[in-house]
Write a structure and sequence with these properties.
The complex is a heterodimer of chains A (about 800) and B (about 475).
Chain A: H1 7-26, H2 32-37, H3 39-46, E1 47-51, E2 63-68, H4 80-83, E3 91-101, E4 105-117, E5 124-137, E6 142-157, E7 187-189, H5 191-194, E8 199-201, H6 203-206, E9 210-229, E10 232-251, E11 269-292, E12 295-318, E13 334-358, E14 362-373, E15 382-393, E16 406-420, E17 431-433, E18 439-440, E19 443-444, E20 447-448, E21 460-473, E22 478-495, E23 508-529, E24 533-551, E25 572-575, E26 578-581, H7 585-593, E27 610-612, E28 627-631, E29 636-646, E30 649-659, E31 662-665, H8 666-672, H9 682-686, E32 717-719, E33 722-733, H10 736-741, E34 746-760, E35 779-780, E36 789-797
Parallel strand pairs in A: 31-35
Antiparallel strand pairs in A: 1-2, 3-4, 4-5, 5-6, 6-9, 7-8, 9-10, 10-11, 11-12, 12-13, 13-14, 14-15, 15-16, 16-21, 17-20, 18-19, 21-22, 22-23, 23-24, 24-29, 25-28, 26-27, 29-30, 30-33, 31-32, 33-34, 34-36
Chain B: H1 2-22, E1 34-35, H2 43-55, H3 60-63, H4 68-73, E2 76-78, H5 87-90, H6 99-123, H7 132-157, H8 187-204, H9 217-231, H10 234-248, H11 259-265, E3 272-275, E4 292-294, H12 296-305, H13 322-328, E5 355-358, H14 359-372, H15 376-389, H16 405-417, H17 423-433, H18 458-463
Antiparallel strand pairs in B: 2-4, 3-5
The chains are: A mainly beta (about 800), B mainly alpha (about 475).
């Protein structure tokens, strides 16, 4: 959790911003005519600002800052992050499992109930699920089985994501009391951002939105296997799953920002959406097994059909007679917009396998499959994926028989091909559509669909070579495996730059050819191996080197496509390199003099602002000076595992680590923008430029950042490396004599905790929670922190 | 053995019939989407796509950033300051990755691509049963939109003030099939393309429309006058503007008598040559006008034009230009902080329109072109009409010397069209290029000529290798 600024620190920041801004006006770095309408009115809310010189027509050219206004601040001392936190979020869970059967059949039933409070107030998730399954050998040749499961979950929440800017909880000014004298939520004045007294909902009020999500999930599957003759089997299975969800969020008038000062009326709103998805999968295959004199042959061939159907809608309603009860769609005055969609997709597959084993020593396997996807256009629907693997159990060789410290040694080699279709349907076609606001003069209009068609979009294919070694030594006390791989993905599907002249940016293509090379090493050792006392230590480390080898697309200007850069990993961030913080006006003047545009950076640059590096040496700072300042790729990552067992006591813990990835923290950019009336990120507060702190990491903060100090730069980039105690588990099984006497099978009491302890230099909420997509992997907006959880429980079997 | 065969038979039947249960992969079809081959099939479907072309002017990308150009010129001030990408407009230090730039570029080309799609379908004869004349009218309407959009892009991103410059814009005359790209045409060819579209529309568009949110021959002609003015073809600009002024009455266009009524009537005003239709919750337009206000330069201009330079009283309006007072006087300023936008921005009913082209502007286009052609009588006549509506005396134009007229017209046009389309910025650039204004006249953050053209957006450069950026 961030540590917010105290009231005094917050006040000090307001004074610093005013002081810096007035300094910039007085030095001519901010146009006084601009400042008169833009900066001065907002700063006057907080500080006493005295005009000094005047241009003769009434506009001041210089000012003096004469301290903060006392009445600009409130008497509160509120830690908003604490206000909205659910201090001890409780989770409870109950599980019942019944198993039974006869010689020919098995039956299992499982029921689970789960109730979890969220990390923030007004947040709760309940889930109930049940599963029923049976298997039966109907005749000697025919066996069948089926399973059905159903789950229902209901989530109540105040708000799903933090708002930007002024109402991010740790940036809300601490001097405001959360409630007014009537017990109502106080609002936050947005004048300094909006130029008018907009009343913003506080983080506490925002969490009083009424969100309800419900999800019904059904999974059913059945199979039948028929033995035609010894070694030859037919197998068929079908599975059906469906997910139906309803979600709505009602925002009462006291939980939304009030812009009525701008002539819009403040209304409560209700957003509701539903979705229905089903997935049907059908498979038939034949297996053949043959064995003779140490030769072992297995052959399989099958076909599969997958169909996915989805439909859904959403509605947004406005103006309700009431904030608490009449908040259903039927009570709304109007509808704001509505959407509807329906889509099908499908995949047909043919697959086969042939494997051969000789004396359990030499193994060879060939796989071949071909898939046909509905997502691609004519000629591109089908793809073929062959694979081959070889194995050698070295320990089975006669020359190894004398080395008895080797229990197991196996060498694996493989070559394989896989494919991916991870895009939406029909992106190869140009559609014309209509949305609810596509109207003109009250009549419906038809518009171009936002997707620019790619007629050639096709399967993304990956070729992989893999070599591995598994071993088990010293009476199986020391085990491990080592794998190296080399993957090459051709035509990875991703959003690609499109000609903006098409009027859209939505374009998907097989844009990237990339390689992934790396290794994985896993080792485990039994430190103690006694009757009543065992201790197993495990360790793994992995390294993956991802590299964009080539960008496909004849029209792409690769230098301008920021997210993808040849020779770099996918997911790079370009930004400015900070040379230093300016400490001399002469230096700035000289740089401006020699710039072709009259400015090295811009007109507002002054002492205390960043000096960005002129990477291309043209004398002017612009986007062409940006270099790669972060990539999301760690140098290595892995975990450390410990399992200790002493008599009936079990103790285990897991560490995870990752080293070398970098990202930019968006929150810092927000703070460097210098909004008045907003608190600052503590890290910035502790290390920002002032005359007394010229060696600071962060530049001076000026109202609305006219000098551009909040641009993406290497000063805002941090390693996301971490070492984290991910899991600790302690359990105790009651002595058998005791439970036997109670006529109970077994009773175990347990306690566990997760995410208990982390070492990281990442200043954001959670180094593990930096974005996951290519475009967001190098920046973090701190959506939601990971929770520390502690749980205690009892497990009984009968 | 019997069960073996039975089993095989069952398995075989099942797997065969499964094909028919789940079906062929080619049977999977999109729902509720039309395509090039069926979207236009009769007259009404063609009209629906045409409405889609119109609707593109209301999209977020083109409508939201309209106030920005006046911030660039210093005529507007950013109020507060949280305008997305707005700070670089304030400091005239635009970077190619400014989000506002790519939005304007992309959004304006959307109009072009939508119009090109419909032109293609109309020319192919897809609108079965539509009269030949109406087909031409629909194509003509599309060409007005295409011309207007190309013109906007040329003014924002091209060297529109220099007919000899190679830095025109990418011209599009057919729908995108995929990612086929093109290089920038030179400025002369860009203008020729725009004028060709307008000439087609002048010959073929509907002569008039009672609904002023539809374009007509008059719209095309008025736009042509404005384009010619930008080209510096003053003789033609004067002639065409005059033709528009003379013909307006017969085609249902006329100046409003009262400046304020013009904006209360909005898209229903007879002065509007093209304005966006806005009504209710669904036909809304996003605008940041409430986040901007006048600058000190504009206030002084409004003060100086009426009475002395320092006698303005915003409460009574005394000593201020009437139009400025309508916009910012306490009785008419309204909640959005600008009297040209009198309606609420949400809820039911009529909303604020975006006045894309109106007759009042054409009077000033005529006045400027005439003055530059030394036709001072004609120039004074048109200027006087606009000045009279703004409350200036009936002999106002005649109190100024001939050599003062060009700069006087600039001032009136600035106040007349303030916070509509950023016209003040383009006029500033034109006047500077014509040698009528120094570079630092308005805003002291404008230091070099390279600041007069917006950079080609980085996103556009990324997707089109042939696209050349503007020089520094």
């Amino acid at each position: 959790m961030y540590k917010p600024l105290s009231v005094d620190q917050f006040k000090e920041v307001q004074g610093r911003i005013i002081n810096n801004t007035i300094g910039a006006i007085n030095n001519g770095q901010i146009d006084p005519y601009e400042a008169y309408y833009n900066q001065i009115p907002s700063m006057e809310i907080f500080g006493n600002i005295i005009p000094l010189e005047d241009d003769g027509y009434g506009t001041p050219l210089k000012y003096q800052y004469d301290g903060l206004k006392n009445d600009a601040f409130y008497q509160g001392n509120t830690d908003w992050t604490e206000m909205i936190r659910n201090k001890n979020a409780r989770t409870s869970q109950a599980n019942v499992t019944l198993n039974g059967g006869t010689d020919n059949s098995n039956l299992a039933f499982n029921f689970n109930a789960f109730d979890q409070d969220g990390l923030y107030i007004n947040n709760n998730l309940k889930r109930y699920s049940g599963r029923l399954s049976f298997d039966s050998d109907i005749t000697e040749r025919l066996s069948t089985g089926a399973s059905l499961s159903y789950s229902y979950s209901a989530m109540k929440h105040g708000q799903q994501m933090f708002a930007e800017g002024l109402t991010k909880p740790w940036l809300v000014r601490p001097d405001i009391e959360p409630y007014d004298s009537n017990g109502k939520f106080t609002t936050i004045d947005g004048t300094s951002i909006y130029g008018a007294p907009v009343a913003l909902a506080s983080p506490l009020a925002q969490l009083n939105n009424k969100g309800n999500n419900a999800m019904h999930q059904f999974l059913g599957s059945a199979y039948a296997a028929y033995k035609v003759f010894e070694g030859f089997k037919l197998h068929g299975d079908i599975s059906v799953s469906s997910y139906n969800a309803d979600a709505s969020i009602f925002s009462p008038t006291y939980a939304v920002d009030d812009f009525s000062i701008f002539g819009s009326t403040l209304y409560a709103t209700l957003n509701a959406n539903t979705s229905k998805n089903s997935n049907t999968s059908l498979n038939f295959r034949a297996d053949y097994d043959w064995k003779k004199n140490g030769h072992q042959l297995y052959a399989m061939a099958g076909i599969g059909f997958d169909r996915y159907k989805s439909l859904g809608d959403s509605h947004s309603y406005e103006e309700f007679p009431d904030d608490e009860i009449l908040i259903d769609p039927g009570s709304a005055a109007r509808i704001n917009y509505f959407t509807y969609y329906r889509a099908d997709q499908g995949l047909n597959s043919i697959y086969s396998r042939l494997s051969y084993k000789f004396q359990d020593r030499y193994l060879a396997e060939a796989n071949f499959r071909t898939d046909e996807s509905s997502k691609f256009g004519p000629g591109n629907k089908r793809a073929y994926f062959p694979a081959l693997s070889l194995g050698w159990r070295i320990d089975k060789e006669s020359f190894m028989q004398t080395t008895d410290w080797v229990n197991d040694l196996k060498l694996r080699l493989s070559w394989g091909n896989t494919g991916s279709t991870n895009i939406s349907n029909f992106l190869y076609r140009q559609f014309f559509v209509r949305n609810s606001n596509d109207l003109w003069g009250g009549s419906p209009a038809i518009v171009l669909d936002a997707n620019l068609p790619n007629r050639d979009v096709k399967w993304e294919k990956t070729r992989e070579y893999n070599a591995g070694l598994d071993f088990s030594l010293f009476n199986n006390r020391f085990t491990g495996s080592f794998d190296v791989y080399d993957r090459y993905t051709s035509g990875a599907l991703a959003p690609a730059p499109a000609p903006l002249e098409a009027g859209t940016t939505q374009y998907y293509a097989n844009i990237i050819d990339m390689s992934n090379k790396g290794f994985e090493l896993e080792l485990a050792y039994d430190i103690l191996r006694k009757q009543d006392f065992t201790w197993n230590l495990g360790f793994n480390i992995a390294r993956n080197k991802n590299k964009i080898e080539k960008l496909n697309g004849a029209n792409i200007n690769q230098y301008q496509a920021d997210s993808y850069l040849e020779g770099y990993p996918a997911g790079t961030l370009k930004g400015y390199i900070v040379d230093k913080i300016f400490d001399s006006q002469e230096e700035i003047d000289a740089l401006n003099q020699s710039s072709p545009t009259g400015y090295y950076q811009n007109s507002a640059t002054g002492i205390g602002d960043y000096k960005y590096k002129d990477s291309n040496g043209d004398g002017v700072i612009n986007i062409n000076d940006r270099e790669v300042i972060a990539t999301a790729q760690p140098k290595y990552f892995g975990g450390i595992y410990n399992r200790i067992k002493y008599k009936n006591l079990n103790f285990s813990f897991v560490f995870q680590y990752s080293k070398g990835a970098k990202a930019i923290l968006d929150d810092f950019q927000n703070s460097l923008f210098g909004s008045m009336g907003q608190s600052l990120n503590k890290d910035i507060y502790d290390n920002m430029w002032s005359e007394n702190n010229p060696e600071a990491r962060f530049a001076k903060i000026t109202f609305y950042d006219p000098a551009g100090n909040s641009r993406s730069s290497d000063r805002l980039v941090y390693e996301t490396s971490f070492l984290r105690l991910k899991n600790v588990n302690l359990s105790y099984t009651l002595p058998k004599e005791l439970t036997d006497s109670w006529k109970i099978g077994q009773i175990t009491v347990f306690a566990s905790g997760s995410n208990l302890w982390t070492i990281t230099k990442w200043p954001g909420l959670d180094p593990e929670f930096v974005g996951t997509y290519i475009s967001t992997a190098v920046s973090s907006n701190d959506a939601y922190p990971m929770s520390k959880t502690y749980s205690f429980g009892v497990k009984a079997t009968f | 053995m019997k069960t073996t065969y039975l089993g095989l038979f069952l398995a075989g039947t099942l797997s065969l019939s499964s094909c028919s249960i789940v079906g062929d992969i080619d049977d999977i079809k999109p729902y509720y989407k039309m395509e090039t081959d069926n979207v236009v099939y009769n007259a009404e479907s063609a009209e629906a796509v045409l409405r889609g072309v119109y609707k593109s002017w209301r999209t977020f990308n083109v409508s939201t950033f309209r106030p920005y150009m006046s911030i660039l010129s210093g005529i507007s001030s950013s109020k507060g300051g949280g305008l997305t990408g707005g700070q670089e407009f304030v400091t005239n230090s635009l970077q190619a990755n400014n989000i506002a730039l790519s939005n304007i570029y992309q959004g304006t080309y959307l109009t072009i691509n939508t119009a090109n799609n419909l032109i293609f379908l109309m020319e192919r004869g897809d609108a079965k049963g539509m009269s030949e004349q109406r087909v031409k009218e629909v194509i003509a309407a599309c060409k007005v939109h295409r011309a207007l959009a190309h013109f906007q892009i040329l003014r924002h991103f091209g060297y529109f003030f220099d007919l000899n410059s190679p830095y025109g814009i990418v011209l599009r005359d057919r729908p995108f099939q995929g990612t086929e790209t093109a290089a920038r045409a030179n400025v002369q060819d860009s203008y020729t393309f725009i004028l060709d579209d307008l000439d087609y529309a002048i010959s073929n568009a509907v002569p008039s429309s009672t609904q002023h949110y539809y374009v007509t021959q008059m719209t095309a002609k008025a736009l042509k006058a404005k384009v010619l003015l930008h080209m510096g073809k003053m003789a033609e600009a004067e002639k065409i503007a005059k033709e528009v002024i003379i013909a307006a009455d017969n085609q249902g266009y006329a100046l409003e008598n009262d400046f304020r009524t013009l904006f209360i009537n909005g898209y229903e005003s007879k002065e509007a040559l093209f304005a966006t239709y806005t009504n209710g919750n669904l036909e809304t337009v996003s605008d940041l006008v409430s986040r901007t206000t006048y600058s000190e330069y504009t206030r002084r201009l409004a003060d100086a034009l009426s009475g002395t330079e320092t006698d303005g009283d915003l409460t009574s309006g005394q000593g201020y230009d009437h139009r400025f007072w309508v916009m910012f006087g306490p009785n008419t300023i309204g909640a959005l902080g600008n009297g040209k936008y009198p309606y609420a921005s949400n809820g039911p009913g009529k909303h604020n329109t975006q006045m894309i082209l109106r007759l009042g502007e054409i009077y000033l286009v005529h006045a400027e072109a005439a003055a530059r052609n030394n036709n001072y009588v004609a120039a004074r006549e048109s200027l006087q009409i606009m000045a009279s509506r703004a409350g200036y005396p009936n002999n106002y134009a005649s109190t100024w010397n001939d050599n003062e007229l060009v700069s006087l017209i600039f001032k009136h046009k600035t106040l007349e069209l303030f916070s509509e389309n950023g016209e003040d910025w383009f006029d500033f650039v034109r006047y500077y290029k014509a040698g009528d204004l120094p570079l630092t006249e308005i805003k002291n953050t404008i230091k070099t000529e390279s600041q007069l053209v917006l950079p080609i957006p980085q996103a556009a450069l990324a997707g089109n290798r042939e696209l050349e950026p503007n020089p520094l």
